[in-house]
Give the backbone structure.
Amino acid sequence: MKHHRIVVGLSGGVDSAVTAHLLKKQGHEVVGIFMKNWEDDDDSEFCSSNIDFVDAAAVADVVGIEIEHVNFASDYKDRVFAEFLREYQGGRTPNPDILCNAEIKFKSFLDHAMHVGAEKIATGHYARVRLNEATGLHELLKGLDNSKDQSYFLHRLNQAQLSKTLFPVGELLKTQVRQIAEEIGLPNAKKKDSTGICFIGERPFRDFLNRYISKEPGPIKDPSGRTIGKHVGLSFYTLGQRQGLGIGGIKEKGAQRGGGEHTPWFVARKDMANNILWVVQGHDHPWLLSPQLEAADASWCSGAAPATGRYAAKTRYRQADAVCDLASSATAEFSLAFNENQWAVTPGQSAVVYDGEVCLGGGVINSATTLA
């Protein structure tokens, strides 16, 4: 086995820690880098990279590697956070983790790693990379642990990035990763997985957005056109949202299409032009079900759009693969027609296309056709 100089993104979590250990064990020259991507109120209770860096440094000590602290906050603010705010202000629901991977972890971080003499980089993502001998292309594969697979977040990686990237824990189950961490005495072996967007952390989402996005209250209406409440600003809601609507008490028998006395309300549409939030009762209301979507800003791992045909896709993370037919144009746009209606397909989120275990790439959802 050829040994490489590999830079590992050490986040302070158990997955990247075990990644570093596995590569060191294989005989590679391993260096750890801790990426600082956010600076505003960073020492608050919700988003403290200081604690994560202490954990990452402790891991580096146990594994026996050097660690460097690198600040990518400026890149992050320009390339990820600014886009995040633009999308929310426009009434869409972006996925900043996908943008962060494409712009920071596998661009700024990769560039920095190459600059310090790395041949490869590695992260603790649950995914795999395989060289297809027949085509000469590097393929992005799902992680072997289906419940942890993160290929959805990595679908914008290109050939240059995939050829330089290793995902060691993608070959393992999460339970195995935890077990290895305990066996070698990692200080973060039992550390809980981070959740939420890195710059928001566990803080209330609406409170965070309030600081950056202007809000214009307006009416909440049901499908009959009745005003049943007041929203705080369309940017603060996403399709399929059930909590935080402030209309929980307004329930009537015989409500719209399958609704009932105890049927919850869901956000179904956002009319930006007229500042109206449309809500429906019932999880399976026709306004929430889509047989087809249109996507743009496509990015394909191979560098070219897949042939028109039958594939599977996810329109949100942790969703089961849904059988669909893909039609793409020569531009960065494509459409997906699903065998079964998809629930709350949300503009701004990503539609990611799969051929079996191979992640082909995807694009940003522009619009979706609903049943009514």
